Amino acid sequence: MIELDAEAVYRSLAARLREEVIGRDVRLVGVHTGGVWLAQRLKADLKVPHEVGILDISFYRDDFSRSGLNPSVKPSSIAFDVEGADIVLVDDVLYTGRTVRAAMNELFDYGRPARIDLAVLIDRGGRELPIAPTAVGRRIEVPEEISVVLSRDDDGRLHLTLEQRRDI
Amino acid sequence: MTSEFGRNPQLNRNGELHHLLSLEGLPRAIIERILATADGFINIAEREVKNVPLLRGRSVFNLFFEHSTRTRTTFEIAARRLSADVFNLDIMRSSTAKGESLLDTINNLTAMQAEMFVVRHATGGAPHLIARHVAPHVHVINAGDGRHAHPTQGLLDMYTIRHYKTDFSQLTVAIVGDVLHSRVARSQIHALTTLGVPEVRVIAPKTLLPTGIERLGVRVFNDMREGLRGVDVVMMLRLQNERMQGALLPSTQEYFKSYGLTPEKLSLAKPDAIVMHPGPMNRGVEIDSAVADGGQAVILPQVTFGIAVRMAVMAMLAGN
Questions:
Q1: Nearest CA in chain B to A111
Q2: CB of B85 within 8 A of CB of B30?
Q3: Which residue has the higher pLDDT, A65 or B127?
Q4: Interchain pair B49, A59: CB under 8 A
Q5: How many domains does chain B have?
Q6: Is there a single domain that holds both residue B172 and residue B251?
């Protein structure tokens, strides 16, 4: 198991995103669960006044017929009007792009945003869809059998580990 | 309940829900997961687009061999919100009237690529029979069979109680009325005991109680005032007029006097007790309008929660 310095990667993401959103009135939307932790940190560090939106994309996954319903589905909650909003979608790890696609589909069911940007802590390549992030903490290359896992300890500190995937 | 194969016919080989036929014998973990999944569907009704794409391209057939407007409509809304293709078959007026057998009807519909059947039937056990004969990829949901079971009603009732009361292990719940003819009461009793409610009471005249009801783990009261004392939840049942054969009751007025829920009788329950009813209500027969429209009634939220609970059941079945 390899551990990356998640806090350093996060600082780099926050710095990149800060440049991107200068002068804009953005709303942060985190993808459950890791994306929500990051969005909440970014809200504080970038002084975004609006409440963070939460997306659980379980109902939008394109592998539902193969893998069934996620047993730990949590309700999505977006307290602001998505119609016309300037949105930054936040997720922990960008890989195939399917989660981001599902998240965008769900967002559009709340309304038509004016713009959506994508901020991710880790871009591990391997895209299967034409999706590119706006702000990235760090790009890494890892083999298929490794998964990149974000966790958060009781003090709110972030940890990134590379683990052997159990599903392949 | 176990089938001839010695396992619960509702579960697949991995112990996951494959059909929903009855709450009897359903593991607590599965009931809790259905309720938790329904939480995720509650907010969807407040969005601009009320649908999610989970069942896109799948076919759900509502097979109603017995009249029902509300249940059929809520199943239809639930399936549509999951983006399924929904077909409503009013069987009473079609093939069975021409003499086709139940299983022939099912085989024909399966040949039309049906993947889920929602079945309401006047005969107890009809959904089980269908579930035993469908192809392995087809799911069956019991939407009420005879006097036997109405599992989605039982689940939405549990969702409602959980919404207002949170902790099942602290509750006293009373089920009041025509228990004898009620599939709803049976499903409620199984769900309440499975979820660990320490005291489930049934309140009814002797003529409207099935013999041996105590074996389900309930306390029986014939006096409504005595039975309501200190309860947290009052679950009223509809007086099933259309099922009444012979003289089980003197008159509906007489029934209302003894077993109708009035503000005065409700005052014997805990001050924060909630009042539930599966609908349609007979006002002035089993429930007084002052109670039905009063601050303790959660009868309309039950209907709203019912859609989310039915979405959860359909989504879980389709994914297993």
A1: B48
A2: no
A3: B127
A4: no
A5: 2
A6: yes
* Alpha carbons A59 and A136: distance in angstroms, whole number: 26
The CATH T-level fold of domain A2-65+74-164 is Rossmann fold (3.40.50)
CA B262 → CA A139, A147, B269, B290, distances in Å? Answer: 68, 61, 12, 7
pLDDT at A91: 97
Residues from chain A that touch B41, judged by Cβ atoms under 8 A, are 59
Does the distance separating the beta carbons of A68 and B319 come in below 8 Å?
yes
**Å between B33 CA and nearest CA of chain A:** 7
- The reply to whether B57 and B159 lie within a common domain is no
Q: Is residue A71 less than 8 Å (CB to CB) from chain B?
A: yes
> With an 8 Å Cβ cutoff, is B53 touching chain A?
yes
Same domain, B187 and B283: yes
Residues B190-208 as b/e (b if ≥16 CB within 10 A, e otherwise) read bbbbbbebeebbbbbbeeb
Q: Which of B187, B181, B188, B183 is nearest to B204 (CA)?
A: B181
Residues B179 and B289 in one domain: yes
Whole-angstrom Cα distance, residue A135 to residue A121? 8
CA gap A137, A122 in Å, rounded: 6
* Residue pairs spanning A and B at CB distance below 8 A: 54
Does the pLDDT at position B2 exceed 50?
A: no
- Please state, in angstroms and rounded to a whole number, the distance separating the CA atoms of residues A63 and B177: 46
* Distance, CA of A4 to CA of A161 (rounded, Å): 6
- The answer to whether the Cα torsion of B112, B115, B116, B117 is positive or negative is positive
pLDDT higher than 50, residue B3: no
Q: Is A69 in contact with B51 (Cβ distance < 8 A)?
A: no
B5 has a pLDDT exceeding 60? no
pLDDT in tens, A115-143: 999 999 999 999 999 999 999 999 999 99
Does A108 contact B at CB distance below 8 Å?
yes
Instruction: Kindly report, residue by residue over B290-308, the tens digit of the pLDDT.
Output: 999 999 999 999 999 999 9
